[in-house]
């Protein structure tokens, strides 16, 4: 730290060193319940904007996709930093006719497995869940003290009403 004197007072200038940006593996999980249909365009646009922004910040970030109906299924097997892969995955989203209560246990198991792989490569795993069901609370059987990955949830729901309490 460099100290300067100005009119008899000490004036310190501070330098804040930039921190390195960690390489992230980002797993998007998109709810494909029928309640999601009206929100697909917004979800797709936000994912594409997010991916382009993240790759501008750090071209080493990688992305994979899964879908949620009653449980999680993998859509893209490998993480990729190719925008074409993201566009193809996003175009592949379509709603199901199933309306069973969702279980996030499979998502958390998948994320834990991928987090271990990411960590071995010096990367961080982030899971971003787009959840769209206004009347159903998801279930899971997963210990809350597990700190293997970061979970972000975008909750897109209907306006509250007598049959809907998001």
TrEMBL record:
Keyword Cytoplasm assigned: yes
Keywords carried by this UniProt record: Cell cycle, Cell division, Chromatin regulator, Cytoplasm, DNA damage, DNA repair, Mitosis, Nucleus, Ubl conjugation pathway
GO biological process: cell division; chromatin organization; DNA repair; positive regulation of DNA repair
Classification via InterPro entries: BABAM1 (IPR026126), vWFA_dom_sf (IPR036465)
Annotated localization: Cytoplasm; Nucleus
Family statement drawn from the similarity comment of this UniProt entry: Belongs to the BABAM1 family.
PANTHER family: BRISC AND BRCA1-A COMPLEX MEMBER 1
Protein name (database record): BRISC and BRCA1-A complex member 1
Organism: Vicia faba (Broad bean)
């Amino acid at each position: 730290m460099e100290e300067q004197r100005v009119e008899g007072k000490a004036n310190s200038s501070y330098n804040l060193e930039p921190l390195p940006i960690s390489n992230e593996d980002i797993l998007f999980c998109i709810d494909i319940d029928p309640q999601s249909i009206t929100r697909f365009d917004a979800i797709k646009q936000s994912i594409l904007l997010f991916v382009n922004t993240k790759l501008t910040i750090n071209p080493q970030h990688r992305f994979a996709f899964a879908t949620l109906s009653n449980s999680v299924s993998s859509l893209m097997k490998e993480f990729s930093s190719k925008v074409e892969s993201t566009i193809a995955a996003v175009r592949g989203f379509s709603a199901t006719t199933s309306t069973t209560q969702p279980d996030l246990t499979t998502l958390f198991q998948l994320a834990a497995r991928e987090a271990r792989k990411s960590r071995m490569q010096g990367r961080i795993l982030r899971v971003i869940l787009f959840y769209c069901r206004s009347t159903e609370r998801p279930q899971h059987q997963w210990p809350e003290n597990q700190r293997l990955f970061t979970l972000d949830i975008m909750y897109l729901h209907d306006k509250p009403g007598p049959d809907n309490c998001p």
